[in-house]
């Protein structure tokens, strides 16, 4: 059986352990506005990309060796370039923070001894799709169904449409507001600082998960979940959309429209995968006290070009990440006793 094989080889598997971390709850709403407001959002996104690329160039030239030195240049660039001054001060700093996050990740990979392309040298961004605001330059309406951006970009008031209710949270709990551009429209994300605690009944159950290509996973009780294969099911429409893009003249309006259609096809498949992973992971975590799954190196597995497509359909990385997130939210402040877990290799 699966659990019996675990007892003989601990180093091949990883246990989802309890970790107490401050997590941010992200709520997303679709926004509706006029065309000139969407153009203003695009301009804000371009300014965000400009600040990030300037930060990377400054670091490459040796002008900034720390985050403190890099943050000082946000005001200098705003005074030097008039269009950069249209974006709020904290939004410019958030763009510089994105650049410094990639730089610090590059330093950490070097300390770990990672070599080659995986070291992750910071690159210039070519197609930015979001802009992030902190605690100013925006204001929520009284009914929490609209948001107004008060910087000089001219975005103005945006209507919010979604299933979540912001009235349950105080304005000071909202730490970040993002404007995200996707193939099917524009979205507003709210990063809320809240304690996510769930009370569950201790079942005393332990389950092991073995993922595969034919079945999505097989647990230690013999239960199998079939692989939904969302990519295979939508492959016909995806290929057709790709052919329509390749047939259009580069730089033309029809090619731009075809790209939007292709982006919607990819977006639908990614959302199907994410929804499937979240539902299964939540079911597994809430039904068992100890969850064991195989520690797979997916990045190495997809190097096999014969099975890369089938391995990618299993979206193993998404499932592992969602399992960790749900485990932390459920067990972050549970006091009925530590689960008896043996830990081998934590990602």
Task: Describe, in plain words, how this protein is organized in 3D.
The protein is an alpha+beta fold and 347 residues long. It has 2 domains: 2-21 and 197-331, no CATH class; 24-193, no CATH class. Helix content is 43%, strand content 19%. It is built from 10 helices and 12 strands. The protein has helices at residues 2-8, 35-60, 67-80, 89-111, 230-233, 235-247, 253-287, 298-301, 308-313, 316-331, and strands spanning 13-15, 24-32, 130-133, 138-140, 146-149, 156-161, 174-182, 185-193, 206-211, 215-219, 224-226, 290-294. The strands form 2 sheets. A 7-stranded antiparallel sheet has the order 3-7-8-2-6-5-4. α2 (35-60) crosses α4. The radius of gyration is 23 Å and the shape is globular.
Judged by helices, strands and strand pairing, the structural class is alpha+beta
Distance separating the two termini = 25 Å
Strand percentage lies at: 15-25%
Helix content: 40-55%
Can you count the helices?
10
Listing every helix as H and every strand as E from the N terminus to the C terminus, the arrangement reads HEEHHHEEEEEEEEEHHHEHHH
Quick recap:
With 347 residues, the chain is of the alpha+beta class. It folds into two domains: 2-21 and 197-331, no CATH class; 24-193, no CATH class.
